[in-house]
Amino acid sequence: MDYFFSILPKMGSFFLLMCIGVLIAKIGVITKENISLFPPFIIKVIMPCLSFSLMYENGTTFASLGHYVPVIVGQVSSYLLLMLLGWLSSRVCHMKYPLANIHRGCHLGGNYGFIGIPLLMVLFATGEGRQYIPICAAVDTIFMWSAGIVFFTYTKERGLSSGFRNLVNPVIISILLGLIVTSIKLPVPSFISDTLASIGNCSTPLALIYLGASLCFISLKSTAMLKNIFSLILVRMIFAPVLVYAVASRFLPETETILLTVICSTPVMASTTSVAHQYHLDEDYASASIFVTTIASLLTIPLVFFLTSFL
């Protein structure tokens, strides 16, 4: 129950930041034309700085990676569970290609970067647990853009090749650089480490302001799809994280259990529409899923931790 009461004010803060994003989009500070600049800046600049800073601050080395194996196994197992639930959900709802593909893909692809990391940063503000954030970011990136793309598109050759091409990205590079620097004990001048940490600390407000602004440019073209999205919320954002908590709490310490629960509680990842466009899937459903699940997450994430307090 402690985490439930800790999360409530945090979600209020998240809601306020998203409202600021909506406001500045409505008054024209952020427009449909320039909002596309935010994701590359966050992913290619903010997130790498945050990843390197966390690796350096926590002294994570190649030798210490073995300490993260239980969490990595738990995270991959959680993703496999989400894949299974997504496949079952699409079958139960009698969906066909291309709707079935994007629906089950929405189960797997959570918004770890824009919702998961900000939430973990505030939950683990004292330092304990923050060392897992870049490691889980690496696992998320590798899994989503390899096995995840295949899951979206069955076994199309282009999906597999695209996944492997995306493994080389700024976040992965920053994590490897951080591991190298800490492993060889290379001193980093304080003005450099402090600057990188300051940039990384912008991740929470900037990501949430961007999410709020982006919601202004998403249109719900059909209310018929809301039934399927409602099932997505129930399965992906409530049932799955509660199940993950129930299982993980039997094998992992509390910090690692909370970490996996948060990862599974996140709404649909923001890049789902890009995946849908690239692979000719249902873009309208992808956009609607991002919109509805992001708003719903302000309620479902506290609900998940309320339910897990009884386990």
UniProtKB/TrEMBL annotation:
Keyword Cell membrane listed? The answer is yes
Q: Name one GO cellular component term.
A: plasma membrane
Keyword list, A-Z: Cell membrane, Membrane, Transmembrane, Transmembrane helix, Transport
Membrane topology summary: Multi-pass membrane protein
Chief localization class?
Answer: membrane
UniProt-listed Pfam families: Mem_trans (PF03547)
The entry's family comment says: Belongs to the auxin efflux carrier (TC 2.A.69) family.
Output the PANTHER family linked to this UniProt entry.
Answer: AUXIN EFFLUX CARRIER FAMILY PROTEIN, TRANSPORTER AUXIN EFFLUX CARRIER EC FAMILY
| Name under which the protein is recorded | AEC family transporter
